[in-house]
Design brief:
Layout lengths: L2 E2 L5 E3 L1 H24 L6 E6 L8 E2 L2 E5 L3 H7 L6 E6 L2 H8 L1 H4 L5 E5 L2 H9 L9 E7 L8 H10 L2 E8 H7 L8 H11 L3 H6 L23 H13 L4 E2 L3 E4 L5 E9 L2 H21 L1
Length: 290
């Protein structure tokens, strides 16, 4: 979770800014395509921000510099969405989101304070059934492991949602003990956010004797578990709900530690293709800059 500045605004690192840039690029492409569909079958399309967070966070490396948060990126996207739904559990953040109504008087903005899982399942999902001829882009950017797998499943079942999810790999690895298999409470917690925990047995196997074949793949273990493997595991889980899932991009902090995996899940192959193109350009630029 981001730390707070002296005025109560979030202070975010470079990786968070890059994540917001990737979001903005996809939102632009999505909105252009959806707006075109309104000429034929589409009635409306919406933006849903399940963790609306900070409106104008400050940059960690330069606290005098403000950054546009995800609600602003969405509201600035052209063509405009038909409505914007912002959710957050924090009263302070919701207060700041409320101010956007004055800043964007021509935009239909709905705001809910509360648990994102509950609001999404009880209020958002019932409003976007497949028969409604509407579509929704749902940004899931939790501060940790707050998004339930059941919520992702409900969004997938509508067949009207694209989800752009920032999954906390750091949150998962922190729950996995190094010296012994996790307790049942931890397994239950991981199952709640990932939908399956079959993979846990794989990483707590007793060590096997070294093979005569030197090029054999090293056995998976808690000590060797890699962020890339966890990210692809989560993407694979998403594919059980959505037919088209982008390749995850790893979001790293200034010390190159992996924090999150960002990926898109959709019922439309074009959505995944666009996301993969955006992510591939980002990866190329990141390699040039390193």
């Amino acid at each position: 979770m981001s730390r707070l500045g002296n005025e109560g605004e979030d202070i975010i690192g470079r990786w968070s800014e890059e994540k917001l840039d990737l979001l903005a690029k996809y939102l632009k492409a999505y909105s252009v395509i959806m707006n075109e569909q309104k000429k034929s079958w589409l009635r409306a399309y919406y933006y849903v921000d399940a963790f609306a967070g900070s409106i104008r966070p400050r940059a960690k490396e330069d606290e005098q510099r403000y950054i546009d948060g995800s609600p602003l990126r969405a509201l600035q996207t052209e063509p405009k969405f038909d409505a914007y739904w912002f959710i957050d559990i924090s009263p302070r953040r919701i207060e700041r989101v409320q101010e956007l109504r004055q800043e964007f008087p021509d935009c239909a903005i709905e705001i809910r304070q509360g648990n994102s899982n509950k609001v999404l399942c009880d209020e958002i999902v019932p409003r976007i059934p497949y028969t409604s001829k509407t579509r929704a882009f749902v940004f899931l950017d939790p501060y940790g492991l707050q998004i339930d797998w059941e919520t992702v499943k409900e969004l997938a079942n509508t067949k009207t949602c694209d989800i752009f999810i920032n999954f906390s790999l750091m949150g998962v690895t922190r729950l996995l003990p190094r010296d012994q298999p996790p307790e049942s409470e931890i397994i239950e917690q991981l199952s709640k956010v990932m939908g399956s925990t079959n993979w846990i047995d794989q990483i707590y196997q007793p060590p096997v004797q070294l093979s005569l074949f030197a090029d054999q793949e090293p056995a998976l273990s808690r000590e060797t578990i890699r962020s890339e493997w966890l990210a692809s595991l989560y993407a694979q889980q998403l594919r059980s709900l959505f037919p088209h899932v982008s390749k995850p991009v790893l979001m790293k902090n200034s010390t190159n530690s992996v924090l999150y995996a960002l990926c898109l899940a959709s019922h439309n192959p074009t959505a995944a293709k666009i996301t993969n193109d955006i992510f591939a350009r980002y990866e190329r630029l990141r390699q040039l800059g390193s």
